[in-house]
Each structure stands twice: as C-alpha cells, then as structure tokens.
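It would be a great kindness if you could assist me with a short task in structural biology. A protein sequence and the structure tokens that stand for its backbone fold form the material at issue. I should value your view on which stretches of the chain appear to form regular backbone elements. The record follows directly beneath this note.
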Amino acid sequence: MGMAIITQERFNKLIDERVADAIRTKKEQSLTDDFGRGRGSFKVRVTRAGHTWFYFRFTDSQGQQKQIPIHIGSVDESQDGKVGWLKAWKIAECWSGYLRDGHRDDLAAYIACKEAEAEAAANAAKAVKAAEAAKTKAGSLRALCNAYVVQLETDGKPSVKEVKNTFRLNVFEAFPDLADTPARQITSKHIGTILGRLKDRLQAKVQKERDDGPKRRVGNAARKLRAFLIAAFNAALAAQEERGDDTPLAGFALDANPAAAIPAKKYKALSGSGTRHLNDDELRVFLAKLNAVTGLAADGVRLCLFTGGQRPTQLLRVAPADFDSVRRTLLLKDIKGQRSEPRPHLVALNVLAFPLVQQLKKTNGHKAYLFALREVQLQPERLSEVVRDIAKAMVDEHTARGPFTLADLRRSAETMLAELGVSKDVRARVLSHGIGGVQDTHYDMHDYLAEKREALDKWAEKLQSLMEIEPEPVIEAAMPSNVVPIRRRGTR
C-alpha cells in the first residue's frame, strides 16, 4: 500500500513519534495525510494519554471544513500497533473516492448508506454460511469430505488440493447419489464400490499401455482414496469425542469408520512401491539436459536434486528467511502426515546447492517465497513438467530405460547415497523420512547437521563427476539461475 504523500514505513515512524510526544508533553498531537486537492485527508489525533483516533477531513461545496470520525478504535487497542491506522487509512481512502463520485455535500449520509449495505451483505453471507452449516449437519458423505478438506486447509496441510480433487473426481462426480447419502449410513460395501471403480479403470488402462506407469498411478489413486476416506471418517469421529459441536466435522453421528474395514492389502498390490531409479548413465544425460533448461521450475528441479532429493512441496515453501548464508543451510518445514505442527528439517547446502540458493535469495528475497512467480508460490506440478519433458526426450533418444518422474529422482538420489556408503539412518535424516519415534521425539536431540553435510558433500562430488567437472569450494558470488558453479576438467 502506498500512502498519498509519505510512505507507510515513514507514517509508522511518525505515529510512534506523535504518541511518544503526547505522553511526554501531556499535549495532544496530530498527523495528517492528504489524498490530493479536493480529495480530503486522513487525520490521526493522539490524546495526552497516548490514545490514537482517526478522522476523515474534507471541504464541502460551500467551503466549510468537515470532519467525520472513523470508528476503528485506537492503535493501542489492536494486537499490532499499526493495524488500527492501516485499516482506518483504507477507510479514509474509500471515502475520498466518494468525494470524487460527487458525494461532497451528502457524504455522511452516503457513508451511512454504504455501511448499511455492507452490513446487509454480511448478514446475507452469514445466512448462507448458516444454511451450509445446516446442510453439513444433515451429515452427507459429501459434507463430511468437504468438512475434512476445510480442516486440512485450516491446518495448512499441503495435501489439501490433492485430497479435494480426489474426492471430487472419485466420489462426488463418480457417485453423486452416494455422495449425498448420510455419512452414518455409508457402509464398507459402499466404500468398496467407490474403490472398485478405480480398480476397473486400472485394468482398462493397463491393457492399453505396456509399462507399469499407468498401473502405478491408478493403483496409487485407489490406495490414496482409501486413506483419505479413512482419515475423513476418523477426523469426524474424533470431533464427536473431543471438540463437541464447534467444528464442521462434528455432528455426523457416526458409529464406526466404514473405510477402515477395507483391507489395505486389497489395493496395495495394484499400486506397489515405485522401483524406478536412474543409473549413472541416465543421470548424466538428465543433468546435461537439465542444465540447458532455464527458469524457476528448472531451478526447483536442480535444487531438489542438488540437496539429495528433498520433497518438492517442502522445498517450494521456503521463505528468504529460511536461508542461512553463514551456516550454509536451508530450513524446510515438514508437515507431512498427521502432525499438527511442522517439524523443522535443516538441509546442509553443498557446493552445488549453495550458490543456487544465493541467486534465488538475490532474485526473490523481497517475496514471501524463494520460489515465487509474481508473489505466488511455484507449484510442484511445474517441476514435474520439467522432468517429464526431459524424460520423454531421453526415451525418444534411447538414453533412458523408460519414463521416470520427479519422485523417481528422489529415489535415485537415496539409492546412490546408499552406494556412496551413507548409512540408512543418515539418509533418513537427509531426506526427512521415518523420523518420529519415541527415541527421536523425546531423547535424541542431536541435529545431525554435520552428518548430513558430509553425506551431501559426497553427493555433490558424485554429481560433479557425472557432469565431468572439478570439485570446487563454495562460491560466495551469486551465479545466474540456470548456471551450475562448475569448471570443466582440463580448463582454467
């Protein structure tokens, strides 16, 4: 937000000074920000006690000065001392617009009319929300799934988009009548019908395509849908026991979880565990092709790979403040699974990753995320597209044994770390998986940064050998976003 005359930061400072002066001198202080000739001004009045009040001042068509109070409370009443005046300034700016619209002589009445309209709209929105809540209380399967999605959004879970789309495609659109059935009437047979549809899709798709990619994708969808339904019913059952009626998940009057009655092994065989990983020759070609791709998404793939195969969803959420250039670390926040609070995951930056993050900080340091396009966080799908395009080209050129995905790069990295002699425990620390038992949660407080750094330094040497470059110390200067800080063997 830009102030009419002075900057927001300067206005913050001036208000602080006026409050301090008023308290010190026991005299009222004031501060005015003019919106321009004939457009009124925003006035701040500071009482002798340091309380701050807001007004909109303007001149009517007769040349008379008028002043309308802005009822927002005083600065000291807000959680943040600047919240009050920012909101009041925006209201004053809106009222300035009313002057431009010709309401100079009836401004107060017009403001009252607009506030009444806003209140009516708010009441209407409340009525709609109440109606939706009533529908939720009716307890359909659709309502339960939607309430679970809302809970995921509230908890900031990265899986919310996938869960929402899975319910939409495989429950709401595939079985609309079943979706509108009361959740307490849903049986394991109903759940089996929903999951069975995915199984049928799997069999039809596998007949058309030879490799196990389609089988894995559809099989994983069936497994995930079962897990999402189990989680949704469990959340509703927990809400009944723990939260009462203050959450959309309460009120379904469930007796059991019908999805939990479906055995996992029935669908595990469909999806299986992914086994695709790149060998040295494939990774060498992939790195060469990746190095020729520019853009933020390609940088994301590079950083995922350079850091040993970190999860893209976590890597793309890092903020500029998460980068420590002194310790050469990047702080990721692992919110995977059912944990309510994210677990900090500290990544040691090797000689390949460090300059890349430096450049990202230089380019996007003023944004909320290091991986941001026009203030919006880059999505993992963009990284998947980069990998998919390179994989397709490699298959067409017969330089890859078969297609591979972004997830396969993570598997490749861990496999090669194991080949480099990195222990299973350290690999788990590097990749932040399987760390949550009693020993790790309550007793082992070591951060394993030294061990992780040693492992990722070995990994950097491995990648450098594949790229036919000489190992170098960390380069402090920022590099172009698509350039790896390397030097070819035999060159100076």
Remarks:
- Residues 107-138 form the longest helix (32 residues).
